[in-house]
Amino acid sequence: MTIDGSLAQWRERAHRFEQEIEKAVIGQRRAIRLITISIFTRGHVLLEGDVGVGKTTLLRAVSRALGGEFVRVEGTVDMMPTDLLYHTYLADDGRPRVEPGALLRQADRLSVFFFNEINRARPQVHSLLLRLMAERSVSAFDREYAFPHLQVFADRNMIEREETFELPAAARDRFLMEIAVAAPRDEETRRQLLFDPRFHDPDALVRRVEPGSFDYRAVVDVARAIQEQVTASEALQRYVLRLWTALLDPAGASVSLPDLDVAHLVKGGASPRGLAFLVAAARVRAFLEGRDYLVPEDIREIFIEVMAHRIFVDPIYAMRGDEPVKRLCRAVFDATPTP
Amino acid sequence: MATLFLALLLALPVSCAAAQAATAEIHSERPFGYFVGDLIHAFVDIRAEADADLRPASLPSPGPLTISLDLRDSRLEPIAAAEGRRWRLHLTYQTFYVSLDVRDIKIPGFTLIVARPGGDEPLSVPSWSVGVAPLREVTPTKAQEAVDYLRPDGDPPRIGERERERVTMALAAATLLALLLVARDRAIPPFHSRSVRRFARLARRLGPLEWRPADAAQTIEAMQSLHRAIDATAGRSVLSSDLPAFLDAHPQFAPAEAALRRFFDLSERLFYGDAAARDDDMAEIAAVARALARRERAR
């Protein structure tokens, strides 16, 4: 029942980390919790949300609390993979120079790499990013650069369709979660955001965050320890397998939705890798809740964020965005008995 | 009856067609005693050589024959014969002749076509007559009232009503019962608020187990049954964190909140943690089921 002494300390640090971020970003408790889960799962994150809801401020606060370096890149339609790696310029002597870009210069110190509007960049850039995310390394200047602590955050421009390149399925599958960052609903929070001057200066806001709530270089080991120490009972394993079956064959599991043909909804993506990511993230959630065993709530709490962006639906429903998948996920949970 | 009918048959004179081989003989049920509207049954026996055949198109077809005589039906029946071929042409006429005295009316003849290898030959069936009679006397006895010239209507047949009433009542009762069963099944008013009493059923089942030394498998099974009953009441799978929403939707269980919370904690430790079932767990589960069963009736 009790978590190992050092892990218990890490849980306290994780909570302190969340509290630090909440100093800068209000009304985003769930997004902050999910980011914390992704950090301790060592997974990359897609952010989803309207313009101006504070995604960048949130990430800068995360980066500051986490320690390490923060690099931000804007996706553009003419961006090439080399733009991420090299910095080319004409030197004072008039000769061209090629030097490592911001990414390579601080490879082993880099903790947060934020790719803004990732779908503005071309597929060539996506494939470099895929390598960076999957292997945490890139090749440049005839050598390998390793990014042992790197965590990629990316957000997609969901408004414009012109000059955007949808992320390929394989790239989306590399992201652990897609976290929705929405404007706060609570009236008091909204009032503060609009009328409290401290929320109008993002730099000052981020400075309120105490840097380095914990050592980002230790997260690799802590993440491994969490995965080893949080257990999944036989009942829970059966429950997750039942969920998976219901997701792949909703009609067979008596799942029905009023205006969706559930028998033909899911075309793919509920893969073993996706489910393995889900269990890994659920273990971190259990750790943050102070348990050393998984319960169904751990799975449900993160299910949509981990699974929805990697489930591909029939093209008939694809036009409706991820709403059919989210509804299906909820219906699957409602129909699957526990334990 | 058939014998009587046959006995009444009267063979009419035979008409011979041009070829000696084919003959036609008319038989009628009786040659007299017909009133307006009566059916006149007759048949024509036709004999021909073995290689002959009758042209179907030449057979008389039903329809009006004269102003007061219709052919109602005509049917050809082949008859097995030792030599040559035989047919019996059944004819049913109906007379509409309103006769004022007893007299004969003529039934027109017709011509059949007999097909032979050598060519077609006509076989004429001659006209014949039957006697018709008036329905009433021409000058009846003088009556006081015009209505006295008419015979009164016959009494309608008496039909037993009691039997039908009984059948109707029985069917009505069966229909009502079926409607009630459907209404109960579909929870249509007055059954809309009927509770399935899942917890009462479960509490009854767990009652006897409570006082025995329970083994772990029984405890697990009882716990799962209670989870399923809660799920069925909510219409969805209820996790521990759903408890407040469940109690909001089913306020009758709110007084049992503490018991429910204890149950979910116990279930979590037993199913997902490393706790093992204890001897008194079954009593705890049965107590929760009893508490819920009591509240279930409050609906």
UniProtKB/TrEMBL annotation, chain A:
Q: What is this protein called?
A: MoxR family ATPase
Q: Which GO terms describe its molecular function?
A: ATP binding; ATP hydrolysis activity
Please tell me the species this chain comes from: Methylosinus trichosporium (strain ATCC 35070 / NCIMB 11131 / UNIQEM 75 / OB3b)
Q: Which domain of life is it from?
A: Bacteria
Record-linked Pfam families = AAA_3, AAA_lid_2
CDD domains assigned: AAA
Q: Which InterPro entries match?
A: AAA+_ATPase, ATPase_AAA-3, CbbQ/NirQ/NorQ/GpvN, ChlI/MoxR_AAA_lid, ClpA/B, P-loop_NTPase
Span of domain AAA+ ATPase: 41-185
The UniProt entry, under Gene3D superfamilies, shows: Magnesium chelatase subunit I, C-Terminal domain, P-loop containing nucleotide triphosphate hydrolases
